[in-house]
Amino acid sequence: MRETGQRSSMASDRIRPLTSAGKAEIHEIAKALKIIGLKFDLIVISPLKRAYDTAMIVSDIFKIGNKVQVWNELAPEGQRIEVYPKISHLSEEYTVLIVGHQPLGQMVNDMIHNEKSNACNLLLTPRILRNIYKKDIKSYTVISH
After folding, report:
1. pTM above 0.85?
2. By three-state DSSP, how is residue 30 classified?
3. With the CA atoms of 44, 85, 38 and 100 taken in that order, what torsion angle do they form, in degrees rounded to the nearest 10?
């Protein structure tokens, strides 16, 4: 999950919270993820305030308590190469939601295009998720492999 918003200085960007529109969007996306049957064992976030805000909304909707870890490597200036070993040390049974910024988008791209990786089993855009949330739940069938 990657939060987007207006650009600002690095210092103020770290403490900038989600806007009310951003909170509403994350709420819809989290509800859609729950509707399609996803469950999270852990939420990993960047140290930025809006990533924390996002994690708290998701945590509340999924009723997973305070299972949130801050990884400084997920900050915009973080080194994505340092994130991969941390991910690999997590239990294979974990379903982890990663909330961050760039380099997160590049990381997802790397995982999708790495033929040896099975890290990304599901990729849904925010637009698709909002549509799921807004549509009649009965019209969706989730097929699990």
Report:
1. no
2. helix
3. 40
The pLDDT value recorded for residue 114 is 65
The pLDDT of residue 27 is above 50: yes
- For the chain, which domains are there? 20-129 (3.40.50.1240)
Please determine, for residue 11, whether its predicted confidence score (pLDDT) is greater than 70.
no
Cβ atoms of residues 120 and 75 within 8 Å:
no
- At 8, which amino acid appears? S
137 has a pLDDT exceeding 50: no
- DSSP-assigned letters across all residues of 40-97: -SEEEE-SSHHHHHHHHHHHHHHT--S-EEE-GGGSTT--GGGHHHHHHTS-TT--EE
Taking CA atoms, 135 is separated from 30, 75, 121, in Å, by 15, 34, 23
